[in-house]
Amino acid sequence: MSPIFSADTPQRFPDNFVFGGATAAYQVEGACQTHGKGKVAWDDYLAQQGRFSPEPACDFYNRYDSDLELCERFGMNGIRVSIAWSRIFPNGGVGEPNPEGIAFYHNLFASCRARGVEPYVTLHHFDSPAALYANGDFLNRDTIDAFEAYARFCFDEYPEVTRWFTFNEIAAATLNRYVEGTWPQGKKGCLHECLQAQHNMMLAHARAVLAYKQGGYPGTIGVIHALEYKYPYDPACPGDVQAAKNDDVLQNRLLLDATFRGDYAPDTLQIIDHLCQASNGSVEFLDDDLSIMRRAAQLNDCLGINYYQSRFLKAFDGETDLHHNGTGDKGTGRWRVAGVGERAVRPGVPTTDWDWIIYPKGLFDLMMDISLCYPNYKQLFITENGMGRKDQLVDGTVDDSERIAYVEDHLRWILKAIECGVDVGGYFMWSLQDQFSWTNGYNKRYGFFYVDFETQQRTPKASAYWFKRVAQTKRL
Ligand code: BG6
């Protein structure tokens, strides 16, 4: 244990702390075109790739009640779910809402209530309706209008939901699509489009927040960002320091400034200019956008942080050179982006089979950074954190002690942040049950509950039993 933890560091979480598991509609529901659901871009993309199918996923569309029964039995008092936009509005912005899709979520939320598991509901988890996606998604301002209309519809339709998040991981959605090229219609190194889409999605978030607050709904609303602390590989090397700042703006800072300031700090703008020049493009932030975003910035009730890893940045002045480790062959990933830097691993820092850096202290550094830089934040939730593994079911059980250690270390740093005065409301492990991973398929497992994807049988892993004790006692 790090010496930073003293005997005074609390070992107990607050009484009202939420412990749960996280899901996303597309990754769990299956039923991709059932009961009037419209297509998303992933449907055709995955079919063309032929690597794996999103059907039936975990068959959550039919099995949500038994999965919620597992949540209850394993001491969880919260669950993250998302609404599939194209189940409600099959074509996105136009047309009548789909009654069967609407009914599905009423039933899901009723089951949550009956099991005493609070639903934390995200409106958009990487699954824009296909028609909107094909027309530029959030680079097209019509999608911002469509998102606001969809959000208003959900706020009115689902009064049983009092915990809302607008977007899940705008950074992942934009980086994977415009910089890393690993998502449908992907491009590489297109930094200005990535930044423009981030801004437009934050404008859509702001408009949904204003709609929620103007509507006087009695709940909370926020956004979920995938944050990574960006450390210079060598803090004494100015090029590494600059690379860390570049990557910080690309992944974190534009989004955090937009969330809590409603505009961009001079330092952020300077790096945005630099990134745009590097990809020969520009971004447009309209004055009207900023005035909407500034109003919304004071109204967020909470911020969700998805934290998996941090990064160590080296200076890099070559051509963009990327290789996505989508197979779990350790050491095959490469991330060098012109104008940004090179992501490297400091010696001695452990990584997963997918080359994700295991660095729990980064979560603490991020929480402290937010509380210092954005004192108008109200409450943080750790809305995702977890470890992808090639879990094996052996003799009816899964020994995932490595995952337990990972989660325990992160929870310890959360306690440290609480000791330092940061308001943290809950922790959701990614993921509740094993789910497919967008670019890695079914062999990267994260769940508390092992899923046999042939039979859909669930088996609690060692981590589920461990987490049950933590959730029930609120102690590590
Ligand atoms: C987050 C997402 O990016 O991380 C999830 O919100 C995702 O949807 C999770 O599955 C893990 O990422 P991956 O690429 O390992 O599936």
Explain what the structure shows.
Pfam families: Glyco_hydro_1 (PF00232). GO terms for molecular function: 6-phospho-beta-galactosidase activity; beta-glucosidase activity. The active site is at residue 384. Keywords: Glycosidase, Hydrolase. Pathway: Carbohydrate metabolism; lactose degradation; D-galactose 6-phosphate and beta-D-glucose from lactose 6-phosphate: step 1/1. This protein is α/β, with parallel strands linked by helices and 476 residues long. The chain has a single domain, classed as Glycosidases (TIM Barrel). Helices cover 41% and strands 15% of the residues. The protein is built from 15 helices and 15 strands. The strands form three sheets. The protein has an eight-stranded parallel β-barrel, surrounded by five helices. The protein has a five-stranded mixed sheet with strand order 6-8-11-10-9, covered by helices on one side. Strand 14 and strand 15 (458-460) form a beta hairpin. Helix 3 runs parallel beside helix 5 (99-114), helix 8 (170-178) runs antiparallel to helix 9 (191-214) and helix 9 packs parallel to helix 10. The radius of gyration is 21 Å and the shape is globular. The two termini are 13 Å apart. Bound molecules: 6-O-phosphono-beta-D-glucopyranose. Residues 24, 27, 168-169, 172, 226, 306, 384, 388, 430, 437-440, 444 line the site of 6-O-phosphono-beta-D-glucopyranose (BG6). 6-O-phosphono-beta-D-glucopyranose binds at residues 24, 27, 168-169, 172, 226, 306, 384, 388, 430, 437-440, 444.
